[in-house]
Amino acid sequence: MRDSTLCYIERGGCYLMLHRVKKEHDCNKDKWIGVGGGLEEGESPLDCVKREAFEETGLSLKNPEYRGLVTFCLDDGASLMTEQMHLFTCSEFEGELTDCDEGDLEWVPIKDVPALPIWEGDRIFLDLLINEPRFFLLKLCYERDTLISSELTIAGRGGI
């Protein structure tokens, strides 16, 4: 199982979105996502999200908020892959935005993000980031690029 992080950096009613267009072999090719990546040996999710955000944006996160844990199950027809993604938001940061070697960075109004080419399951957790202040667990199961099921548990609602 793979562990990763994803952060939606917020400023002035916008999220900093990464349009993944620069890598040839990228499972997120042409999609818009937040910033983040895989945990390295010895890293906590907080260590990872800070490192990845700095590497991809040049911004140093201050007090990122741990919002949820998303479990992805992907059946690509040949194998089953599972990934746990630690989801953060952050509105406090410093530094200057730099170019990203994975894609183009752009500040996008939060209300416009769901209309971008994003993963279907991302719409679920993006809605939760906006409308649900409590920590959540979300399981998203895909067959290739198609979301086939989702399961949500919110802290304080008989779970976690």
Description of the structure:
The protein starts with a strand and ends in a 6-residue tail after the last strand. The protein is globular and about 40 Å long. Strands 1, 2, 3, 5, 6, 8, 9 and 10 form an 8-stranded mixed β-sheet that branches. It has 160 residues and is α+β, with helices and mostly antiparallel strands. The longest helix is centred in the first third of the chain and has 13 residues. It contains 2 helices and 10 strands, in the order E-E-E-H-E-E-E-E-E-H-E-E. Strand 5 and strand 6 form a beta hairpin. The protein has a single domain, classed as Nucleoside Triphosphate Pyrophosphohydrolase (Alpha-Beta Complex), CATH 3.90.79.10. Helix content is 16%, strand content 43%.
Radius of gyration: 15 Å
* Number of DSSP strand runs: 10
Sheet having the most strands: 8 strands, mixed
Helix and strand sequence: EEEHEEEEEHEE
The appropriate CATH architecture is Alpha-Beta Complex
Topology, pairings included?
Elements: E1 2-11, E2 14-19, E3 32-33, H1 45-57, E4 60-62, E5 65-75, E6 80-90, E7 92-94, E8 104-109, H2 120-131, E9 136-143, E10 146-154
Parallel strand pairs: 1-6, 5-9
Antiparallel strand pairs: 1-2, 2-3, 2-8, 4-7, 5-6, 9-10
Summarize the structure.
The protein has 160 residues and is an alpha+beta fold. 16% of the residues lie in helices and 43% in strands.
Descriptive key words:
2 helices, two-stranded antiparallel ribbon, 10 strands, globular, 160 residues, Nucleoside Triphosphate Pyrophosphohydrolase, 16% helix, alpha+beta
